[in-house]
Amino acid sequence: MRRRPLVIAPSEHMERGAGKNQNSRLCFLVLLSAFFWILLLYFHFAVLGGQSDDESIKLNPQDGPVDLPVVRKFAPSQVVDAPKVDVISIRVPPQPPQPVDRQPKSTAEPEIQKFSFVKALKTVENKSDPCGGRYIFVHDLPSSFNEDMLRECKSLSLWTNMCKFTTNAGLGPPLENVEGVFSDTGWYATNQFAVDVVFSNRMKQYDCLTKDSSIAAAFFVPFYAGFDIARYLWGYNISTRDRASLDLVNWLEKRPEWGIMGGRDHFLVAGRITWDFRRLSEEETDWGNKLLFLPAAKNMSMLVVESSPWNANDFGIPYPTYFHPAKDADVFNWQDRMRKLERKWMFSFAGAPRPDNPKSIRGQIIDQCKKSKVCKLLECDFGESKCHSPSSIMQMFQSSVFCLQPQGDSYTRRSAFDAMLAGCIPVFFHPGSAYTQYTWHLPKNFTRYSVFIPEDDIRKRNVSIEERLAQISPGQLKLRQEEVINLIPILVYADPRSKLETLKDAFDVSVQAIIDKVTKLRKDIIEGHTDDNFIEENSWKYALLEDGQREVGPHEWDPFFSKPKDGDSNDASAEAAKKSWKNEQRDKS
């Protein structure tokens, strides 16, 4: 008997179906929840994680590749206990490290450090170093460039025995105070072209010398350029005249110090007028040597007693006077004495006419002086005369209120400095005689210490010098005279064998001016400043600019400095130099 199949009641069937449906719904909810959390985790790590400012994760490019976790997407049909994590390598591009708790460094710092003179500029920041920013490196030249010339002093001049003038560190023999014109000490018969050796000996006493070229504010070249050319001005060919200059440049260019700025931080001194070093051609008949036209020398600064208004590589410094103080008291006593003097002459002139120069106003000045009852004249000519006696000259200047200073054979005269040393107000007739020459040593406002009467007022208009000077009020006269006396310290060269305590002399002012010039140039190089608009023929104008000014324009003195046309400039300058040299015969001994 077959058994009948079991029949399930409808209610039991429904209960089993309901159990299956509940399990399916539960699985679905679990999957949905897992999918939701996966999406949330993805959104957090993949999207928000890239923009997070959380400092717990740092990327340092110097650590190389950085391993970061990446969360993958999971298929919603899969059920996983936990998301799997893969590791991949991501290379981060190098970025500048960010400083912590300090000011960001300038991006220009690495650029600045590439200049080899930066260390020298930074010495000024050391407030405990009195020489910071003032160090001078002196080249140790072969003796042929300086000391050998002094040993052969008889050959330094065709007409003058220079041996006695090179004694006493270049000051020359002492002057006796027989007539009471000088002080008892500090006065010497100094030759007007002896600045080479005087300056070099003063440099030996400079308080901030260094052998470390990396901290040098400037480099001094102790070459006796003036003595060198003086030996060969007459009767020697151009190769002889140029030999020492070429040898010097060749020696300097091999030195590592030269490479710092290509010579633009170097300077030397020549106690002669610039035209002795500016021969324009290779013609044997042309005057002087070509030192200042050599490419290397154009980078250097040359200090001369008369500079060119049309060139940028020479600078005027005072002619030496007869007074060389050894201490501050020598200067103070002399200044006090000049203030108390009775000056019986309104104006005076010491000089000779220039009949062979049609442009010279000396003849007219001499004529006016002879006709005036308030003018003192010392006529100078070849041979012995009081005009060549230091005592006679200083005595005349000390007894005069104004001292006339027309051009000599060239723009300048030593007489102008002798006059101011005597407290006498100088009267100039050409701006090139002082105003554009000695801008380091004299005030730019020339009315403070001098009187200017244009040459044409004398030459063409026959203006009375006496009447012009009489128009100056007593108050103005006193102010100008006091200004002249106050200038005395920086117009004289102190005794190289001693040292002034507090005062600055002509040497100190010149050295500081060179340091300032080189420092400014170095800073301009670092800052990228260029003088693209610089016109060398207007060099005399740039010297008159105020601080911060860079551009020049038309000037009231333009007619005085109209450069001669090509072919004439050399003749004019050479002729002036020849006449200047020829007149040295008057100082022969």
TrEMBL record:
Signal peptide: none
Domain of life: Eukaryota
Cellular component per GO, a single term: Golgi membrane
Molecular function per GO: glycosyltransferase activity
Chain ranges passing through the membrane: 26-45
Keywords for the protein's UniProt record, in alphabetical order: Glycosyltransferase, Golgi apparatus, Membrane, Signal-anchor, Transferase, Transmembrane, Transmembrane helix
Compositionally biased region (Basic and acidic residues): 553-568, 576-589
Pfam families: Exostosin_GT47
Keyword Transmembrane: yes
InterPro entries: Exostosin, Exostosin_GT47
Residues in Exostosin GT47 domain copies: 131-468
Region feature Disordered, mapped onto this chain: 553-589
Membrane topology: Single-pass type II membrane protein
Main localization category: Golgi
UniProt-listed PANTHER family: EXOSTOSIN HEPARAN SULFATE GLYCOSYLTRANSFERASE -RELATED, XYLOGLUCAN GALACTOSYLTRANSFERASE MUR3
Family membership: Belongs to the glycosyltransferase 47 family.
Name of the protein: Xyloglucan galactosyltransferase MUR3-like
Protein's organism: Cucurbita moschata (Winter crookneck squash)
Organism ancestry: Eukaryota, Viridiplantae, Streptophyta, Embryophyta, Tracheophyta
Gene: LOC111463964
